[in-house]
Amino acid sequence: MEDPILFWNDVCNEANRFDHTAPMKGAAQGGPTRSSRATAIVHLAMHDAHFGVSNPDGFALYTGAAVNPYTVTGTPPLAVQVSASVSAAAHLTLAALYPEQAAMFASKAQEIAGLNETNRAAHAYGYRIGREILRLRDKDGAELSATHVYNYAKPHHREDPLNPAQEPLGVNWGGVKTFAVSAYHPLANSPAFNSAAYNADHDEV
């Protein structure tokens, strides 16, 4: 029996790799901020799809009670039902996040179904989990874009000299809804600009 979590984790990593490889150049989820969000969405979907079938009373689900509970049946084996649920959730979320790679995801879904068998009811449950995860993360702030005006004066940000056409990454990312963090810890204030402590830190960098 192929482990469905590890299987789809590999697919997710491959999707991220390909998305950052020419000619894609991060077309779908470019940069570490967007790709980490995409990875979190896929893995949350797999988590809920797995435990919603294997142990619905033992773990809190990210989707809460929004999706009707799954009823485990005697056949096929529980492992097959778990695999079908996880595969549906992972396939759906990956295809939504990386639409250019939909054919690869469909092929992988067929591959694991051939290895582990599948189950229609569990697959439908995983599909509903995936849709709910995507709904919960819709309009979470990641869709917003912002422009940044470069400034050569200290202490402002200037463009990358090796890639001057590259847009700044994550200008608005501090406003994106978090997945688990409920409160931010305050940070110490930076040294005053041009103070001795600031200049020492600047020179160290």
The H/E string reads: HHHHHH
> Rough shape?
elongated
Query: Beta fraction of the residues?
Result: under 5%
Find the count of extended strands (DSSP E, 2+ residues): 0
N- to C-terminal distance? 51 Å
Largest sheet: none
Poorly predicted runs: none
State mean pLDDT (0 to 100 scale): 91
Radius of gyration: 21 Å
Please count the helical segments: 6
The assigned structural class equals: mainly alpha
| Residue share in helix | 40-55%
Kindly describe this structure.
The chain is an all-alpha fold and 205 residues long. The chain has 6 helices and no strands. The protein has helices spanning 4-19, 31-54, 78-97, 102-116, 120-137, 196-204. α2 packs antiparallel against α5 (120-137). The longest helix is centred in the N-terminal third of the chain and has 24 residues, at 31-54. The mean pLDDT is 91.
